Amino acid sequence: MLMLRNSEPYAVYIMSNKHLTTFYIGVTGNLQQRIWQHKNDEANFTGKYNCCELIFYETYTDVQQAIAREKNLKNWHREWKINLARTINPELKDLAAEWY
Fold first, then answer.
1. Which CATH superfamily is domain 10-88 in?
2. Which of 11, 17, 16 is nearest to 33 (CA)?
3. In this predicted structure, what is the pLDDT of residue 43?
């Protein structure tokens, strides 16, 4: 189970569908709760496009840095996002598959 360090409460994350055709990039102060919402169709975009797999996340201590990173990633090309996710998740598996 994911345990974020207390000193890094904010997470920037990438969700995708099984075919990696659609991405959702978000920032949250509670990654596990937010991913649960995505997986249970409580988030409109991810529910509509079936983006229920967490393929990447990184943590920050400063919410402004996290928001800036989220905005930056949203402008990236698809291939760049996939390559970034592969840095921590080479097989692009759902990092949250066993959380719930």
1. GIY-YIG endonuclease (3.40.1440.10)
2. 11
3. 72
